[in-house]
Amino acid sequence: MPNSSEEDSVGEETVSQSSSAAVSKTLLELQGNTSHSSVEADAQDADSVPQDAAAAVNLDSGAEGGTCSPVSSSKLERENLGMTSTGFTADIEGPDRDPPQECAVCLDFLKDVCKTSCNHYFCRDCIKRSISFPPPHSTTACPYCRAPTSLYTVTDVSSGLPLKASDVDSIFGLTFIQAGEVGVASYHFDALENSYISYASCPPAWKLGDGSQPAARKPFTNTHYAAETRTFTGEIDWSPTTFGGDAQWQYTMVFDHGFNAIVQGHVVAVAPDGSSSKRSLFGKGLFYRRHRKTIFGSVFLQALSPFAVQAEKGVASYHFESPDHCYISYTRAPNAWHLDDGSRPPLEKPFENCFFDGGNVFRGTVHWRGPSFGGARRWEYEMIFAPNFECIAEGQLSVFKDDSDQPAQVLKFGEDVFYCIDYDIPKRG
Ligand SMILES: [Zn+2]
Ligand SMILES: [Zn+2]
Questions:
Q1: Using one digit for the tens of pLDDT, what is the confidence trace for 241-253?
Q2: Which one of 60, 167, 421, 424 has the fewest beta carbons within 10 angstroms of its own beta carbon?
Q3: No. of H helices and E strands in the chain?
Q4: Residue 280 and residue 303 in one domain
Q5: Distance 113 CA to ligand 1 centre (A)
Q6: Same domain membership, residue 244 and residue 203
Q7: What ipTM was predicted for this assembly?
Q8: Which listed ligand is nearest to 116 at the C-alpha?
Q9: How many whole angstroms from 44 Cα to the centroid of ligand 2?
Q10: What spans are recorded as compositionally biased (Polar residues) (predicted)?
Q11: What's phi and psi for 413, nearest 5 deg?
Q12: Whether residue 90 sits in one domain with residue 40
């Protein structure tokens, strides 16, 4: 947690500017950041990896990068260098040892101790900052030993629970799409024995070797699913005809911990003569992500930019539980956030007069009938969601300071304010 006096002064300024949207750049940076060096490292990373980061949350195309290691390595290397140069030695050999006192990232006393699966210990904020990347990237390396690590495999020592848990346990019941459309070579995993590629909406130009169109449902055969590695294998057999000159496609798909995307794997194309003719790589040229049908059931988190790590849930996150229950959560609001009478923001602030058009537009109003918030009496929202309901792509937040119809300020989603889905929804209960 931030603890400097600098935070308070900056925070107040922020509240007056954009508490409605929620958070300003400065406040987000302050969350959990106790050292300037880490802020700078984040900024450098953001500058150095525009392509990958942009791909992860591209508002328009929804194209998605599946590998995160290129993003993280330079920063992690810097952090590793920093650690070794200061003589950090608390390398834990086994799970039964007591945790060390010192965090390998901030080099300060451990706070809210978390443990990686490689048995290294970090402050909760430090490890989250070190291994969080724009969604759906979810696997990176331990800041100390570089072992594969993700928020799903880091546990909070006091509770024993992982920092993130997926909302689903497997691929079954899910659909994965390429560019926002079901039926254009979308993958459907209804069950292991009922998994198929849908060509129901494919372009008329897609023709098999015999001149016919691909079937609306082309089943995977020889299917296998390894839950431990989240890996699906299966075959698509076009014989006796061909598709794109291929007689068969052999798939290996590796899903991320949250089942948000296919992040690794490949397709081997087999020619009619039996030779393997080419490979397409998931996460590199072949991008599939989970299909989402609505905003309800989802949480949207704010970020500084489309490329940035998202804020925590509870930092003015938007929760769309049902058409009748949508709210802004302030459960983790920064200490500097106060209503204008000095009180803390409510934990749940409901959207009123909610309207969802069944397509991609949500409207709602937040009233500050008691004390105002940053001078505002009313926030009016129009959110226009990107095709797969992963980001708020357009729309605006209008801030009203009195009862007039003239907003004092208008913030545009996708330009001034960035919200994307929380890919990692912890299970209830
Ligand atoms: Zn730390
Ligand atoms: Zn480690």
A1: 999 999 999 999 9
A2: 60
A3: 6, 26
A4: no
A5: 9
A6: yes
A7: 0.94
A8: 2
A9: 24
A10: 14-23
A11: -70, 140
A12: yes
Contacts (Cβ under 8 Å, ≥6 apart) of 319: 299, 326, 327, 328, 329, 348
Non-local CB neighbours of 317 within 8 Å, separated by 6+ positions: 299, 300, 301, 302, 311, 328, 329, 422
The residues whose Cβ lies within 5 A of ligand 2, an ion, are 116, 118, 120, 142, 144-145, 147
Residue 289, CA distances (Å) to 133, 281, 422 in order: 17, 14, 14
Q: How far is the CA of 132 from the centre of ligand 1 (A)?
A: 15
User: Taking all residues of the chain, what is their mean pLDDT, rounded to a whole number?
Assistant: 77
Say if residue 60's pLDDT is above 50.
no
* Coil vs helix vs strand at 301: strand
Lowest-confidence pick of 64-78, 110-124, 127-141, 363-377? 64-78
Distances (CA, A) of 303 to 11, 23, 29, 345: 16, 8, 10, 20
Report which of 184, 183, 186, 241 is spatially closest to residue 212, judged by C-alpha positions. 241
Please say which residue of 229, 264, 286 terminates a domain.
286
**How remote is the CA of residue 252 from the centroid of ligand 1, in Å?**
38
Q: What is the structure's pLDDT at 270?
A: 95
C-alpha–C-alpha distance, residues 101 and 120, integer Å: 12
| Residue 162 identity | P
Q: Output the six-digit token pair for 77.
A: 């290397």
* Span from the CA of 363 to the centroid of ligand 1 (angstroms): 40
What's the Cα-to-Cα distance from 386 to each of 163, 365, 398, rounded to whole Å?
27, 21, 20
35 C-alpha vs ligand 1 centroid, how far in Å?
10
Where in the sequence is the domain holding 39, given as residue range(s)?
5-156
- For residues 53-77, average pLDDT: 30
Interval 302-323 mean pLDDT:
85
Q: Tell me what percent of the residues of the chain surpass a pLDDT of 90.
A: 50
Task: State residue 43's pLDDT score.
Answer: 34
Residue 340: inside a domain: yes
**Three-state secondary structure call for residue 419:** strand
